[in-house]
Structure formats: C-alpha cells, structure tokens
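Sorry, explain these tokens?

***
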Amino acid sequence: MELNENRVAAVRSLRIERWTRTAGVAAVVIVVVLVALALGPLFLGAGMADALTRLFIYVILAVMWNALAGYGGLLSIGQQGFFGLGAYLTVRLAGAGIDPYLAIPLAAVGSGVISIVISAFMLQLAEGRFAIATWVAAELTMLLVLLDPAVHGFTGTSLAQIMAYAAPVRRSLTYWLALATMVVVLAIVFALLRSRVGAAVQAIRDDAGAAAAVGVRVTETKRILFVLAAFGAAAAGGLWLAATITFQPESFFSVQWSAIMIFMVLVGGIGTFEGALIGALVFFLIEHFLGASGVWYLITLGAAALVFALFVPHGIWGVIERRFGVNLLPVGYRVHLPERLQARVTHREGMVPGVRG
C-alpha cells in the first residue's frame, strides 16, 4: 500500500512544460535581431549585405534539410535537384515577362507542386534506397533542364531581367527577400513541429510501423515534409540566382549543395531546431574566413565534419542541450522528474535534470 502511494506521489510530482521563461527571453531577442536585420541595407556596406544574404540562404537550406532528415528521418542527398529547379524556373518565369522578384516565390511554389508528383515514387522507398533515389532524381532533373535550348547546355544563361534594377536597389531587394523567406520558413517549420503533424513526423522517424499502428498516416505525413523541403530548397536556389545572376546547371545542380546542408546540420545538431541555425552560422564563418584559401578551406570542412561525426555526434547544440538543459526554441515537451529520479538520470546520463520530449 505504501509503495503504491509513493508511486502516485511520484507521478503527481512530474511537471511537463513546453514554453519556458528562457524561451520567452530568446523570442524577444530574436525579434529585436530580426528588426535590426530588416534595417540592414540602410546602414550596411555592399559586402556585408551580400554576405548576410548568403547566410540567410544557408539558414533556409539547413532548416529545410534538418526538418526532412533530422525530424522526419528522410535522409536525402538530392536536395540540390530542387535548389537547381527553383533557379531554373525563376529564369524561365522572368523570361516570360514576370518580375524576377515575383518569379522567385512562384518558382518555389512550382517546385513544391512538382515535388508532390515526385513524392509519389520517392516515398515508396526507405533509408539508403530513398537517399540514392533522391540523388538520381536530381541528376535526371539537371539532364531535363539541359535539354531546354534557352539554357544553352552547360554554358548556362543568366537572370538578365534583374539587371533592370540598379545595383544598390537589386542588392537591397535580394537581401530583404532572402530575410523574409528565411523568417517565413523558420516560422512554418517551428509551427509544424509544435503541431500534431510534428508529433506524427517524429513518431514516424522513431518507428514508422508503430506510428501507423496508432493511426498516423505515414505516407501523407512524410509528403508534407518532402514538399515543404522542396519548396525551401527551390526558394534558396532562386535567391542564390538573384544574388549571382548567372545560371549554370552544373553549379546549381551540384551535389555539393546537399553536402553543405548535411555539414551544417551535422555540426549544429541534427534533430534540434537551434542546431540548424548554429550549423549555418558555423559554415558561413568558415567560408567567410577561409573560402579564399583554396584547398585549406576544403580540408577544414572535411576535418570539421569528421571530428563532429566521430566525437560530437549530437552536434554543438546537442551537447549544449544535453549538458545544460537549455531549450531556446522548444518544439517538444520537457518532463521534469522528482528529485530522486532526477539524481538517477543525472548520474546515468550525465545530463541536467529534465527529459526532452
């Protein structure tokens, strides 16, 4: 009888929380930072504005791949297919008379629609077969694009229509559109992961069979992530084209883009919302300071990826979260255990009290 009473008391002492005071402070800081960034073109130099535009694009790519693979368990190495498709459709829409800055979101939406068709085949596959199939699909997409006479084969073409804007105006518009797209993508992913769909996504990642057994519509839920990731990658491709102007299929459809996404998420912390942001920032800083060093830049990236894969598998934010229990942008729940259980968990796991859900 006494044992049962102790168990009841332990259960009652459990505390489940989702939004914390720390998260509230973080949200206020994020809003202030975003407001400051929105005013960036008014006081930033051309070089810094261009650099931040690249950072925004990297964040979009990292967040999208993390949502797809980190939360959904869909390990894609073919997201460059949608990145290149977004740029290609932007060129074609602008060539048809649509303003380039309107063509970019329209191209992203078009890529998302196309991804619905592609998902009908891709989502029949799992794990390694899915990963390989995404790469094959990306290569096929590039070959189809090369068949378009307007692209001029491997020589490529350019977004000539964007040159109608003066350079300072073009730089500011590209910056603002990249910032706005990043904010929208972050908001969508954050809201999605905190919804019932987000819970279903993570249940499928952990055990698709068990998720289906409790009523989760596995294929439909995966399709939501697949289409969202395609939209984000395509938007990033269109933005990159607006920043660089020249469209060369081999460059935009290069597997290096998927490698960059994987690197950012691996370093930041796969399966953590904050990790994708940190990984994008780390990659941006490495590129910014070592990008001109040629082979040493590639060596640094390779060495960093190897070190994190071997010794820091949870990434930077994963280590911080496990060690200190910090959760700035919580998408799950935290279960705070009774004192006796806290001590056991801390001793066994080397973590601070509190279990993340």
User: Anything to note?
Assistant: The chain has 17 helices and five strands. Residues 167-193 form the longest helix (27 residues). The chain has one domain: 44-296.
